[in-house]
Specification:
Elements: H1 15-29, H2 32-43, E1 48-53, E2 59-63, H3 72-93, E3 96-102, H4 109-125, H5 127-130, E4 133-142, E5 146-148, E6 151-153, E7 156-164, H6 169-180, E8 186-190, H7 194-201, H8 203-207, H9 218-227, E9 234-238, E10 260-264, E11 270-273, H10 274-285
Antiparallel strand pairs: 1-2, 1-10, 3-7, 3-8, 4-7, 4-9, 5-6, 10-11
Helix pairs in contact: 1-2, 1-9, 3-7
């Protein structure tokens, strides 16, 4: 049982079922990434690497994470970091609105996400929107898919937290239908708490693709991982671009420095060295 990467609580959706599905795909297709994903999920949080301070040599144990979007443990960490980076800039912008935009359900998740991204770009370029929109961020989501005719059907939608002048829902709906051609279900409302709204926008990101309330089928999780590999689902724009807060820097508790080497805990091999990287850059730049 992989505790750190639990992908649901129902019996059919245990980590073992997901890992088995990934390995079955690897055997059937010969595609190595399924095996790699299974290995990462299985070892997430259990494999330990060490950070060795390049100044004093003090070592810190750090669990290696899989970083996969389907992993709720890693996804929640990413959502937390994103919230910390953008909460204060959004609060400074003020006049926030919470907007939801939807598309018609699709069996092709990858195309659905691509289409949503293109439609959002078109929306932001409209003169009528540019006059009232200052900036914000969006998060593209899809709820638990349903299965029809042997295929999973995904409801791709986007939540936006934006600084803009209020516009009637009817006006926004007509504009969205004009852009998409077939979708008009939208919602816009005032934001009283930026923190609560941002947490809601990033809620899906923090659950991975399997919440405890709505566990996904293992096959749907694999389809999700394949379709969204390398896709950007959270994007700041407008005045929010370049305004993210910097995260807290990890420093050595022994000497206070922040230059480390990453060490494999089993072999002692240096995987990465910040000091070596800095020396290499200095040699390239010259005196």
């Amino acid at each position: 049982m992989v505790r750190s990467c639990s992908l649901g609580i129902s019996n059919h959706n245990t980590p073992t079922a997901v890992l088995t599905t990934l390995r079955d795909h690897a055997r059937r297709t010969g595609i190595d990434r399924y095996r790699v994903w299974a290995s990462k999920l299985e070892s997430c949080g259990t494999v330990v690497r060490k950070l060795r301070c390049e100044k004093c040599g003090h070592e810190h144990d750090v669990p290696a994470r899989c970083g996969l979007r389907a992993c709720p443990s890693c996804a929640s960490r990413k959502a937390y970091r994103t919230q910390r980076r953008y909460l204060k800039p959004l609060q400074r912008m003020g006049d926030l609105k919470f907007v939801t935009l939807t598309l018609r359900a699709t069996t092709d998740l990858e195309t659905g996400v691509w289409r949503m991204q293109r439609c959002l770009e078109k929306l932001r370029r409209r003169a009528s929107i540019r006059r009232c929109l200052r900036g914000g961020l969006y998060c593209i989501e899809t709820g638990k898919p349903t299965k029809r005719g042997g295929q999973y059907v995904f409801n791709v939608h986007a939540h936006l937290l934006v600084s803009m002048d209020f516009r009637p829902q009817k006006w926004l709906s007509a504009l969205w239908k004009e852009i998409t051609g077939d979708s008009w279900v939208v919602d816009i409302r005032f934001v009283r708490s930026a923190q609560r709204a941002l947490r809601y926008v990033l809620d899906y990101l923090g659950k991975g693709c399997a919440s405890m309330k709505e566990p996904w089928d293992p096959e749907a999780i694999v389809e999700f991982m394949v379709a969204l590999e390398g896709k950007r689902l959270v994007q700041p724009f407008g005045d929010l671009l370049g305004s993210a807060e910097r995260g807290e820097r990890f420093v050595c508790p022994s000497c206070g420095e922040a230059i480390f080497a990453v060490i494999d805990a089993l072999t002692g091999e240096v995987i990465f060295s910040q000091l070596a990287l800095l020396k290499g850059l200095a040699m390239k730049l010259g005196p």
